[in-house]
TrEMBL record:
GO terms for molecular function: metal ion binding; oxidoreductase activity. This is Fe2OG dioxygenase domain-containing protein. Belongs to the iron/ascorbate-dependent oxidoreductase family. Residues 171-284 form the Fe2OG dioxygenase domain. It comes from the Eukaryota. One of its GO terms (biological process) is small molecule biosynthetic process. It comes from Aspergillus leporis. Transmembrane segments: none annotated. The keyword Metal-binding applies. Keywords: Iron, Metal-binding, Oxidoreductase.
Length: 317
């Protein structure tokens, strides 16, 4: 059974404490859950998926007018198929995936318009004029939901309720729109959609279409991946990232996108349909220190979120 939490209960004072505790215990055990009543309006989700479809069907030369730089930073703009390979990062893919599986995806990375360090790389005027306003709005909705979730997690952990929110004041969060093109089933022998990895940040809110293929490692550390059946675009899957694991001991679950279960059985023309996803990554402020929040922890040098981020992302581009 896939764990789920109805977040509308957070807004009922008589149920708040209990839902926060349930939230934390589920994330400690599994590292992910389906978030029901997440607060991002369905109309905004529809607009975001429509904008994603519209952008990715543009000719490649149009998409390349707002390119991700050839380096890992800033993590902004359009990455064509083949540019980023998550399986190339050491400690991500299992040792058995050698040489690593290549990712069959193209993606667009967006930061906050308020990020003090990096500017967004938007499609220039005339290429796709709905893209910037749609995703700016979606980003802001994601940030509001993020702050509520961080409050719930703080309460569930027994910390003052602003504890985690205060570590996310700078809006260093990122939004990633991904298109996995239709591919032949046989391609999954040497490639995948996104190789097994953990997310680097605090929490991820993931929206996906109905195609499926998202898999989580369950039980934790088992090396076995279970399909997470897609409930369609309005469903939000919340998973824990590495920073929250360090701060509070919640489980940062390894996950990947591979051959969807359904197509394994149906074998439609030997092709796996295209897939779209939108992932909102809540990330700590760059200067935030990654040391346990619940206990004193050993004295010594702890990484800042920025140092950790640079370490983990190195090698993906
Ligand atoms: O496309 C998906 O469903 C998952 C993407 C993902 O895990 C990521 O970008 O970190
Ligand atoms: Fe991920």
């Amino acid at each position: 059974m896939f764990p789920s939490v109805d977040f509308s209960r957070f807004h009922d004072p008589s149920q708040r404490e209990e839902v926060c505790r349930q939230f934390v215990s589920t994330l400690k055990e599994y590292g992910f859950l389906k978030l029901i009543n997440h607060g991002i309006p369905f109309a905004q989700i529809d607009l975001a998926f429509a904008a994603a479809r519209h952008f990715f069907q543009l000719p490649l030369e149009q998409k390349l007018k707002s390119p991700h730089p050839p380096t890992t930073h800033p993590h902004r703009g359009f990455s064509p198929v083949g540019l980023e390979n998550v399986g190339a990062v050491s400690g991500y893919g299992s040792a058995t995936e050698s040489p690593y599986l290549r990712d069959m995806k193209e993606s667009y990375d967006i930061g906050s318009e308020h990020d003090p360090l990096y500017k967004n790389i938007w499609p220039p005027p005339g290429v796709d004029d709905a893209f910037q306003p749609t995703f700016t709005t979606f980003f802001e909705a994601g940030y509001r939901t993020e702050l509520t979730i961080l409050k719930a997690l703080s309460i569930g952990l027994g910390l003052p309720e602003q504890t985690l929110g205060q570590l996310h004041a700078d809006q260093t969060n990122e939004l990633r729109i991904t298109h996995y093109p239709a591919v032949a089933r046989g391609d999954f022998v040497h490639s995948t959609r996104i190789a097994a990895h953990t997310d680097f940040g605090t929490i991820t809110l993931l929206f996906q279409d109905a195609v499926g293929g998202l898999q989580m490692e369950v039980p934790p550390h088992s090396g076995q991946f279970a399909d997470i059946e897609s409930g369609g675009p309005y469903e939000c899957i919340l998973n824990v990232g590495d920073c929250l694991q360090t701060w509070a001991g919640l489980h940062s679950a390894r996950h990947r996108v591979h051959l969807p279960d359904q197509s394994r059985e149906e074998q439609i023309d030997g092709m796996v349909p295209e897939r779209f996803s939108i992932a909102y990554f809540a990330k700590p402020d760059r200067a935030a220190i990654l040391r346990p929040l619940l206990e004193a922890g050993p004295e010594g040098k702890y990484l800042t979120a920025n140092e950790f981020q640079h370490m983990r992302i190195a090698g993906t581009y």
